[in-house]
Amino acid sequence: MEIVSLPETAGEERPLSDAWDSKGRRAIKSRTGGWVCAATSLVVEMGERLATLSIAVNLGPYLRGTMHLGSADSANIITNFLGTSFILCLFGGFIADTFLGRYLTIAVFTAVQACGVTILTISTVAPGLRPPACAGPSSGGCVPASGLQMGMLYLGLFTTALGTGGLKSSVSGFGSDQFDESDRIEKKQMMKFFRYFFFFINVGSILAVTVMVYIQDHFGRRWGYGICAVAIIAGLALFLSKTNRYRFKKLVGSPLTQFAAVVACAWRKRRLAFPEDPSLLYDIDTKGDAPAEQSKWRLSTLTDVEEVKQVIRMLPTWATTIMFWTVYAQMTTFSVSQATTMDRHIGPSFEIPAGSLTVFFVGSILVTVPFYDRIVVPVTRRITGNPQGLSSLQRIAVGLVFSIFGMCAASLTERKRLSTALANPTAAVVPLVVFWLIPQFFLVGAGVAFMYIGQLDFFLRECPKGMKTMSTGLFLSTLSLGFFLSTALVTIVHKVTGSGGKGAWLTDDLNKGKLYNFYWLLVALSTLNLVAFVAASRGYVYKETRTQHRGPNGMASLVYSVPNKAH
């Protein structure tokens, strides 16, 4: 895109210094950006949540009831779907920062997501893409889905995941690009935009687990998935309709490239002696006589090195938050499986869809956030002296504690459900009201509120300015790895304890298994993880209080280069 310079003008007609319009000219403040443009990204994000979450929370009953898969296999497909969605955010961020920019990344991957949901819709409509309904034992019983049928399902799921990961990495950033941070009024509007962004995510989540799940269960998945596909396409059309009014930012390159370049330089120069004078180290911010046109793969600046070192300091905290999202994964897998076996009736005729129980999970998040802001912050501010009440690491710790309590509640509830089932062996539905599951949903949901805000604050504040796009990627990667860890744990437990028999934990029929032991395993692992987190966080010094030293090892102790010895 060719950049055309325009003369400076006064007032609202002045061109912005860091933004361009769709034709490559300096963006005029009064003609571009603002709330109308930012709002389109909110619609895109709500459509993404509507589709991804409604598919995930209600996929288990479909896999078990229609595709005739076991409980463990079904849980793993769900966690792999969600894990892939979040890990692809790193890929989407790389594509946006390096090649396409945020606008094209959102447009392309929203279309990809719409294709994925459309494929899922087709897989629920075409009879040949589903196995026949279960027959009597003498007629063969339940026939599992064939390779072709599962292949079509996987194609739809992981195409949807690709679209989700790609667009999710850029939606919030593109929305914030529509505001001028140098303008006091627009900067306040940008902060309000982030609050609305969080609000729209939760609105989409609530609609997904209530309205869309109800439609899937009572009118058919073809309608539920079809409506999601139409909503995504409508959001994309709205997004594209404002193209002429958007503000676009320059491509800045991916911080992943910077990280890789610094590590490569460190390895290449690992045997070089450190210079006696650290001032000889290459820093383009301070050395006007530094060599020009140096490849970043051969010569790293002090700034690049220090930014990479700063990210490395954050890795212990990053690693010890993954376990929380493994616990979170159970809310969309085995907790929903529990709900399918219990009494879900309200009144004589209405039955709550099993997937809709996650509304208590989302509701817990929405209740906890204002509770924290209005009650916890004022109290803890007086105790800690921190204007935010609790520091970001303290909030993460609280989230980890809530996850442990949530799994304790889940295990105790499962013991209650199982004892009731054993006492009523002939009952088609366990005569235990499904609201017994609320404590585990509420506790883990409250943990998410503390963990989500704590992690986001930690990564945004502690990541270097030059690697801000990596901060969101690091945060979302913990979600992804948490889901994949859940898959690994379920696979190991299923293999060790078996799929049937007296000792099996994760059986296809939950009434014949010991799911409560799996929950206790998560309690034990989460407790060990909390100890590791506390040990790692005790030695962490926040960036704003960290003292910079330039001793004999200089700032660039990881990798260095003297300008006149660059090669």
From TrEMBL:
Compartment(s): Membrane
Chief place of localization: membrane
Biological process terms in GO annotation: oligopeptide transport
Pfam families according to UniProt: PTR2
UniProt entry keywords in alphabetical sequence: Membrane, Transmembrane, Transmembrane helix, Transport
Recorded topology in the membrane: Multi-pass membrane protein
Membrane-crossing residue ranges in chain numbering: 77-96, 103-126, 146-167, 193-216, 222-240, 318-340, 352-372, 393-413, 433-453, 474-496, 516-536
PROSITE patterns documented for this protein: PTR2_1, PTR2_2
GO molecular function: transmembrane transporter activity
GO cellular component labels: membrane
Family assignment from sequence similarity: Belongs to the major facilitator superfamily. Proton-dependent oligopeptide transporter (POT/PTR) (TC 2.A.17) family.
Protein name: Major facilitator superfamily (MFS) profile domain-containing protein
Organism: Musa balbisiana (Banana)
